[in-house]
Write a structure and sequence with these properties.
Elements (H helix, E strand, L loop, with lengths): L4 E3 L18 E5 L18 E5 L7 E5 L12 E9 L4 E9 L6 E7 L7 E7 L5 E9 L8 E8 L4
Length: 160
């Protein structure tokens, strides 16, 4: 709905994902970038932008985090919907929750590449009594050409 804040990456990272939080490893690109799959966004548009892990990643994982969200309440849980692409079994995408009082990140969802070369969609629901950030992490076990992790169209409900 219109009350959802949408990050489609067409113009920038949107205000929920501060620019400086995009660690080396995640890049904003489109399917025409010559960087391998995916070759389009989740709508099949070759020139539309999404985030993907760079094939030149220096480390085995890269994360980006949202800005800090206020605590949720019963009526307004924070729901985050996103499209994702995880190719091959050596790739993993995780979504984690970090509360302001905690150093540790709690893993709330993850997928490894059992699904071959297609966009999928998922929604995570967050219930937190304190301020929190959400962290998206991509992990790579072995570097191979033509394998990737990508994220598109992250939408945040009004409870976030």
């Amino acid at each position: 709905g219109s009350s959802w804040n949408n990050c489609d990456f067409e113009t920038n990272l949107c205000n929920v994902l501060p620019e400086f939080n995009l660690q080396p490893g995640w890049i904003r690109r489109n399917g025409q970038s010559g960087m391998g799959p995916p070759y389009s966004d989740h709508n099949g548009n070759e020139s539309a932008y999404f985030l993907s892990l760079s094939s030149e990643m220096q480390s085995s994982s890269a994360a980006f985090r949202t800005s800090v969200f206020l605590p949720t309440d019963e009526e307004h849980l924070c729901q985050i919907r996103f499209h994702y692409w995880v190719s091959q079994t050596s790739r993993t995408l995780m979504v984690g929750l970090q509360k302001v009082s905690e150093d540790a990140v709690t893993n709330i969802w993850q997928v490894s590449g059992e699904l071959r070369n297609q966009w999928n969609v998922n929604t995570v629901t967050i219930n937190s009594t304190e301020k929190f950030e959400v962290i998206f992490s991509g992990m790579v076990e072995t570097q191979r050409q033509g394998e990737s992790v990508a994220i598109d169209d992250i939408t945040f409900s009004e409870g976030c």
